[in-house]
Amino acid sequence: MENNTTENYSCTVLRECIALQVKKAHDYQNAASSVKQIDYYPHGLQSIYDICHAKMLRIRSLMESGVQPENEALEDSFRDLINYSSFAVSYLHKKIPGQTDK
């Protein structure tokens, strides 16, 4: 993706995270599956928090090891964290597919 010189690179990263989220949604929330996005969060916001916490622990582990990861780059983990944070905000607004007003 080309970066506009008048904006921060972080804006480019956010657009890339959107594209990644859309691609993953196509895989995980497709019409052939009965699983809805909300099903991944059986304890609501707490589940999303737990996923973010686990992701942060993985990031910390990779950073402390000083070893170049072979299967998931630090960048990938941070991008996932951005997307899970957006799911948390969506949850707060009751906008997660399959979410009800329970």
How would you characterize the overall build of this protein?
This protein is mainly alpha-helical. It has one domain (9-92). Helix content is 59%, strand content 0%. α1 crosses α3. The mean pLDDT is 91.
Largest sheet: none
Overall form: globular
- CA gyration radius, whole angstroms: 16 Å
Q: How many H/I helices?
A: 3
Low-confidence stretches: none
Percent of sequence in beta strands:
under 5%
In N-to-C order, the SSE pattern is HHH
In the residues, how many domains can be counted? 1
Q: What separation lies between the terminal Cα atoms?
A: 40 Å
- Class derived from helix and strand content: mainly alpha
- Count the beta strands: 0
Quaternary state reads single chain
Considering DSSP H and I runs of 4 or more, what fraction of the residues is helical?
55-70%
Overall pLDDT? 91
Task: Kindly list the characteristics that best describe this protein.
102 residues; mainly alpha; 3 helices; 59% helix; 0% strand
